[in-house]
Amino acid sequence: MSDAVATPTLLYLVPTPIGNLEDITLRAIRVLGEVDTVLAEDTRTSGRLLQHLGLKKPMLSYHLHNEHQQVQRLLDRLERGERMALVSDAGTPGISDPGFLLVRECLARGLKVECLPGATAFVPALLKSGFGAERFTFEGFLPVKKGRQTRLQELAQETRTMIFYESPHRIVKTLMQLAEVFGPERPASVSRELTKLFEETVTNTLAELAADFGSRTAIKGEIVLVVQGAKIEKPSKADKYDEE
């Protein structure tokens, strides 16, 4: 029997519900209860979740605007054996949320990292769209200004199903731009408020979706936009009697 001791996990990436609090896993609850510190994108949001779960844990703010300043201090604490859980406001940390930098540096120093499976918004949106899920590309948020049109042009001939995250105040503009570049008849699906009381998924052409959401007085909730990939034009078979 080996005397080797298993390397302890020091950093856990813990997915949190994207809306419905029942979507937290039993393992996530256990890990959050066992770690020494919870790193949170917004301590107020994560604090309410911990309170709901009946957990009291020291929390540290870790978000897009302070992650570069925080990483070295966190690494020092992790190397001393402190166990931490990283959570985002909703979903899996590291997917369009901070997390990559800390994970990369932990791995470079030989610190063990574990990622728990759990809630993420793009999976239910993809499956509810009714488009092919065998092959897809996750694009996250499009560039807001610089490089936006270039990226859209690059994706115009993408044959895989495409998944985007978008904010409520930019969704109409994005749908209009996609309709202009991809063509107004390209099928797409907009999901918002996933797992919540007023969950909605609307599937139509890009032009119709732009008109639909453009006519609304208010749009609420984080949005997942799924766009069907470009169809490959198959060359027609030549008549067997045609001469070369």
From TrEMBL:
This protein's record includes keyword Cell membrane: no
**Assigned EC number:** 2.1.1.198
Primary localization class, coarse: cytoplasm
Q: Which SUPFAM superfamilies match?
A: Tetrapyrrole methylase
Looking up Pfam families in the UniProt record yields:
TP_methylase
Q: Which domain of life is it from?
A: Bacteria
Q: NCBIfam families given for it?
A: 16S rRNA (cytidine(1402)-2'-O)-methyltransferase (TIGR00096)
UniProt cross-references to CDD domains, sorted A to Z: RsmI
Kindly list the biological process annotations in GO that this record carries: methylation
* HAMAP family xref list: 16SrRNA_methyltr_I
Q: Which GO terms describe its molecular function?
A: methyltransferase activity
Give the Tetrapyrrole methylase domain ranges: 11-210
Q: Mind telling me what this protein is named?
A: Ribosomal RNA small subunit methyltransferase I
Catalytic activity entry: cytidine(1402) in 16S rRNA + S-adenosyl-L-methionine = 2'-O-methylcytidine(1402) in 16S rRNA + S-adenosyl-L-homocysteine + H(+)
Please state which protein family the record places this protein in: Belongs to the methyltransferase superfamily. RsmI family.
| Cell location | Cytoplasm
Keywords per UniProt:
Cytoplasm, Methyltransferase, rRNA processing, S-adenosyl-L-methionine, Transferase
Q: What does this protein do?
A: Catalyzes the 2'-O-methylation of the ribose of cytidine 1402 (C1402) in 16S rRNA.
Enzyme class (EC, first level): transferase
UniProt cross-references to InterPro entries, sorted A to Z: 4pyrrol_Mease, 4pyrrol_Methylase_sf, 4pyrrole_Mease_sub1, 4pyrrole_Mease_sub2, rRNA_ssu_MeTfrase_I, SAM_MeTrfase_RsmI_CS
